[in-house]
Specification:
With about 725 residues, the protein is α/β, with parallel strands linked by helices. The chain has 3 domains: about 170 residues, 3-Layer(aba) Sandwich (Rossmann fold), CATH 3.40.50; about 180 residues, Zinc Finger, Delta Prime, domain 3 (Up-down Bundle); about 170 residues, GMP Synthetase, Chain A, domain 3, CATH 3.30.300. A 5-stranded parallel β-sheet has the order 2-3-4-1-5, with helices on one face. A 3-stranded mixed β-sheet has the order 6-7-8. Helix 8 packs across helix 9, helix 14 packs antiparallel against helix 16 and helix 16 packs across helix 18.
């Protein structure tokens, strides 16, 4: 008993209707045949096994059919039976393999025989397969014949590389490009063939067969023929297909993907070891892993991809893919796929593919070592999944608790950064005009006595009151005078004005704000080390602040080197943290334009009762008036010139403005007394830990700390 023909020969199409996946070619050809508008030369191009030669034979049968012009051959006439699937062939239809008959002599022989009329058919048809193998001389020998053939002659060229056909021949033909067959169409076609053959095949094995065929109908049927020949009573199973075709079993891919999702390195490298120990190719495993990650990326983006046909997988496999996709984040999946794709490229020609595979797995398991955008997003995906497991979907969805109203004596004191947070000058006037005057509501806003001053920059805390004020979006003005606590409604944490200044990296401060707060930093340094305080007050000036770097400008290089070598930068850095609440890096530079004498004077010591609000937190006009005008001028200032918040309801200076003027007069009187009397010892009110310096070591101290040289000493009385 003879063996049956191969599947691709037994099921070779005999009409254009049986050709699958090439409707863009078969339909125009059928229309041309039915309308008797057939050209004298055709060029069929496309990948191997997609139906080029088969379509050329069908076209020759339709041309020589006794019922022509007709779209499909009848299959009953002598010409159709001769050119059928198992027919003997026709003497008028000549097939030439150009791979072995592409020379100029073969072309000349064809040209001599082409002029003879057909024996039994209407046309003499030449089917030249692998036409790109014809030499240039052979094409030139056929050029005149192809351009002006006899009426009974038709040419059909079939090739996989149409660009190798010389343009003079290609321009005289009708070109029809064939394509690869879609996987979904091939799957249904294979199922139909298995039913005809009476062999069962598992649905999970069909995608492997289609994948091995790579879109070629002939190659796919060859693979299926191999599996059908090796199948047992149970038919074609998934294990049989994966074993014969060399693909990685789904169980291994499921294990390695689950290990990646859980971060289990032991399981991942155990799978790699199993791949190598079972004799599988690491390159094929990497390729299969990349395909699995591609399916997971699609499932993550389109949850119903399997149901809609976007992925050609079975039902149970679709469920597994959905579960695996939910255990990953999209960014983590994309990063893993990129790493595997790059590693697969490196594996080509590599002598140690297992080593490269293990390195790929190590990179996927360690997103923390990846400082690129993909690595950061992968770590973010992990954090969100952990937050979802712990009970919250993300950090943003967790509601922030609103601060409860508490008595003033029980509420903790505000931090130094909150007390030092300044308000923008350009926003202050509008905020003061929109703010109700404190003295207009004596019940909810009582004014404290003048002899009990509050801290200079401390905002008003919340206190109990019988009639609390309703919540209202009121802009907070800078505190100029110490006032009694005001009852306000509880506000969310995000609405507090000091939130911007509490950032540890200094993102809420700029150079202007830092210069306003610089006097308090100098006071802090004065209580720590005397020499550092001298550097800040006499040798340097704040010249820049950008990205957490505070630049101190020195006019000469000597003080700058003394500042850097004496460890003063650490003292200034700690003082900035204590006073302002931000971490900065001190950078000492040479700046000839830096003028330390142009800086505003430092505020008095903290233990003095009179606050210096105009020099630190007050707006620029008020601070300038407090520094330049004499005490009696402040006392006699016109009410019309006073700001709106300093005037009561009848246009007279309020109690707050009167107390401010009286204190400014006292401060000016103290300054005048200091100017008229003997010089005040700057260390009278300061405790510092510097060592005592005698007269003999003063020159050495100046040379070591400041880089100065004593020329002549002048007594203080002179």
């Amino acid at each position: 008993m003879d063996s049956p023909l191969a599947l691709y020969r037994r099921y070779r199409p005999e009409t254009f209707a049986e050709v699958i996946g090439q409707e863009h070619v078969t339909e125009p050809l059928r229309s041309a045949l039915a309308g008797n508008r057939v050209n004298h030369a055709y060029l069929f191009s496309g990948p191997r096994g997609c139906g080029k030669t088969t379509s050329a034979r069908i076209l020759a049968r339709a041309l020589n059919c006794e019922q022509a012009p007709i779209a499909d051959p009848c299959g009953e006439c002598d010409s159709c039976r001769d050119l059928a699937r198992n027919g003997p062939g026709s003497i008028d239809v000549i097939e030439i393999d150009a791979a072995s008959h592409g020379g100029v002599d073969d072309a000349r022989d064809l040209r001599e025989k082409a002029f003879f009329a057909p024996v039994r058919s209407r046309y003499k048809v030449y089917i030249i397969d692998e036409a790109h193998m014809v030499t240039t001389q052979g094409f030139n020998a056929l050029l005149k014949l192809v351009e002006e053939p006899p009426p009974h002659l038709r040419f059909i060229f079939a090739t996989t590389e149409p660009e190798k056909v010389i343009p003079t021949i290609r321009s005289r033909t009708h070109h029809y490009p064939f394509r690869l067959i879609p996987p979904r169409l091939l799957t249904s076609y294979l199922t139909e063939l298995c039913d005809r053959e009476g062999v069962s095949i598992e649905p999970a094995a069909l995608p492997l067969v289609v994948r091995a065929g790579a879109g070629s109908a002939r190659d796919t049927l060859s693979v299926l023929d191999q599996l059908l020949g090796g199948s047992g009573p149970q038919g074609v199973t998934y294990d049989l297909a994966s074993g014969l075709l060399g693909y990685t079993p789904d169980t291994l891919l499921d294990d390695v993907v689950s290990a990646f999702a859980s971060g289990d390195g032991s399981a991942v490298f155990g799978v790699v070891d199993k791949v190598v120990e079972t004799g599988q190719d690491p390159r094929r495993f990497t390729e299969d892993l990349l395909r699995r990650l591609r399916d997971l990326v699609i499932i993550s983006a389109v949850p119903d991809a399997a149901a809609s046909g976007l992925l050609d997988v079975s039902g149970d496999q679709a469920d597994r893919l959905t579960v695996q996709a939910t255990s990953f984040g999209r960014a983590e999946l994309t990063r893993a796929a990129d790493l595997v794709a790059a590693g697969l490229t490196d594996m080509r020609g590599a002598t140690a593919p297992r080593l490269l595979l293990e390195l790929i797995c190590a990179r996927i398991l360690l997103p923390g070592a990846d400082h690129t955008t993909e690595g950061v997003l992968a770590r973010l995906d992990r954090l969100e999944r952990r937050a979802a497991i712990s009970g919250t979907t993300s950090a943003e969805s967790a509601p922030a608790p609103a601060p409860a109203a508490a008595p003033a004596q029980d509420r903790p004191a505000p931090s130094r950064a909150e007390r030092a947070a300044p308000e923008r000058i350009e926003d202050a006037p509008a905020a003061r005009r929109a703010e109700p005057e404190p003295q207009r509501e004596p019940v909810s806003q009582p004014v404290a006595p003048v002899e009990q001053p509050a801290p200079v920059h401390q905002p008003a805390p919340v206190a109990e009151a019988p009639q609390p004020v309703a919540p209202a979006p009121v802009a907070v003005a800078p505190v100029v005078e110490p006032v009694a606590p005001q009852p306000v409604a509880a506000q969310p944490v995000a609405a507090q004005p000091a939130a911007a200044s509490s950032a540890p990296a200094g993102g809420g401060l700029n150079l202007v704000d830092l210069r306003r707060l610089w006097p308090s930093v100098i006071d802090r340094v004065k209580g720590v080390k005397r020499v550092t305080w001298i550097h800040l007050t006499q040798n340097s000036q704040v010249v820049g602040f950008d990205n957490g770097v505070l630049a101190l400008g020195f006019q000469t290089d000597g003080p700058r080197r003394s500042f850097e070598s004496g460890g003063h930068a650490d003292i200034v850095q700690q003082a900035v943290i204590d006073e302002i609440g931000v971490k900065v890096r001190i950078d000492a530079i040479i700046d000839p334009s830096a003028d330390p004498s142009a800086r505003p004077p430092a505020s008095p010591d903290q233990d003095q009762p009179a606050p210096q609000a105009p020099s630190a937190a007050a707006p620029a006009p008020v601070a300038a008036a407090a520094q330049q005008a004499p005490a009696q001028g402040n006392a006699e200032q016109s009410v019309d010139d006073a700001p709106p918040w300093a005037v009561d309801g009848e246009g007279q200076p309020g109690e707050q403005e009167q107390s401010r003027r009286s204190r400014m007069a006292d401060i000016q009187a103290q300054e005048n007394a200091r100017a008229d009397g003997p010089p005040e010892d700057p260390d009278a009110h300061v405790d510092f830990d510097d060592a005592e310096v005698d007269a003999e070591s003063s020159a050495e101290l100046l040379a070591r700390e400041l880089g100065a040289q004593v020329i002549e000493e002048i007594p203080r009385g002179d």
